[in-house]
Amino acid sequence: MLVEVSLHLQHKLETKLSLTPYVKQSLEILKYSLEELEHIIREEANANPLIELIEPNSEHLLEMARVPNSQASNYESDALFDPLLHIPQQDSSIEPYLMEQLAVQRRLTKSEREIVLYLIRNLNESGYLDCDMEETAERFRVPIEKCDELISLLQSFEPAGIGARSLRECLQLQAARDGNAPKHTEALILRHLEDLAQGDFQFVADLYGVPKREIENAFSYIKQLNPRPLMAVQSARQELIIPDIIVEEFNGEHIISINDMYLPQISINPHYEELLRITDCGETGTYLKTKLSDAILLMRGIEQRHETLYKVTESILKKQRAFFQKGTKALVPLRLKEIADHVGLHESTVSRTISNKYIRTPKGIFALKTFFIRGVKMHNGEVESPLLIKEKIKAIIDSEDRNKPLSDQKIANLLLAEGIPIARRTVAKYREELSIPQSARRTKK
């Protein structure tokens, strides 16, 4: 049997999304904080003879706001403020340390690895997870249960307590991994930290039907757990927060400026520029052209970073105007997608823009992430701010019968009756953030 084989050419049109070197460079530079960018510029200058650096004016640097991370009093204090957001970026040795543990997880799919890597990159310096799970699920188009599963995987890494979303969870993860932890330790962490902190050992002992000494021993154990797990694997250091954006008030208007005073200015070395005009061919000419192209890409990338940062900041502040009158208490629910749609950028680009960036305002210095709050969708379709819901929870507790205080579930039911669908665990979370003890503790008082 003979089979006839023929060869022929066929034209086919395809549309492919391709990133130019300029776009790739711009996206890479966009994610850097001010200090990281300064380091990158100096590295490039060392490797590229065409780049000359003009050092920043030292007098300007002295005027620039640089806030030690220990001076919490410099920040506005209210229920929304989270000091973990204001800790400087983590040491670069942390990510590889966790990546080594991720590499041995052989059964993960490519998309699962990408999600875990995303979670690792959203750990703050203390080791707490600093990202919204619903937004993460939407970003990677997976069920939220899958995100919870991968968070549990991350929480199994070393050091114990990594990937926790609260102090309670951090301590509970450490106790759960210790086979020698005293009996009832996890339950005490999750339900009775306030009681233990106030020394009500007999009250807790009566609840569990155990001797008071047993509760005291458990509390001694809890106190030696590490509330900041990543501190165990990185050297302690005093760092300064340098704001990437500065907002100043002038005649009732808020003026945004990108802080580039800290950065050395880039220029092209005139000697090599002249040599390039003379030597237009050969290996030397090719080398000089390549280095010139690299220098121009770097300068354009920095310029693009500044433009994008300005546009995104301007959009954020337009959405959060009340912040300048009342501070963080007046922040309204805001998501990355709203800003992305408003400025015409991809959501991932906005995420890069706000990552590890700080803004100096008349109200203090804040991480840009501070301005993004996930609201609760009401039955009428409106989105309610968590701050207002906290006020409602506080008002309900303030008016309750002291002899019969309301459980978190009953508070959730009352809010549901007002058209606010909220889970019991969310009520518990908000109550704890308000420093209000649970119902058993309120009964005792």
Short characterization:
The chain is α+β, with helices and mostly antiparallel strands and 445 residues long. Helix content is 49%, strand content 8%.
Q: Separation of termini?
A: 96 Å
Structural class: alpha+beta
Strand order of the largest sheet: 5-4-7-8
- What are the segments in which pLDDT stays under 50 over at least 5 consecutive residues? 58-92, 235-239
CATH fold category name of the largest domain: Arc Repressor Mutant, subunit A
CATH superfamily of the largest domain: RNA polymerase sigma-54 factor, core-binding domain
The CATH architecture of the largest domain comes to: Orthogonal Bundle
Integer average pLDDT? 79
What percentage of the residues does DSSP assign to strands (E)? 5-15%
- So what's the overall shape? elongated
Query: Which percent range fits the helix content?
Result: 40-55%
Q: How many structural domains are formed by the residues?
A: 3
Question: How many individual helices?
Answer: 21
- Assigned CATH class of the largest domain: Mainly Alpha
